[in-house]
Amino acid sequence: MSSYGTSPPLNNYSTTYDLTPYVESLPPSTSMQDNTSRATPNSLGWSPNTELWKLYKFVVAKGKEPYLDLLPEWTITNETPERVYLDPSPCVHRSTQ
User: What pTM value is reported for the model?
Assistant: First the structure.
């Protein structure tokens, strides 16, 4: 007789592991490290006078970065992804003199 029939199934046991040290040691995800991988008007090659802006709804959620969401009646393509983030504005340094 095998011991398989006398052992309780593994799913009857509950084990808790503290993964905090492991998770904290992981490098940040690529999307957090490199914002250039997110779609922006510049990364998509949109010109300043493009009509593609009309296909999107501008979303500004409190405490979040503003973005454009493709309206549901339009198809997602390489040129018109579902979400487009705004390009970062160049820093403007003012002289204190």
Answer: 0.55
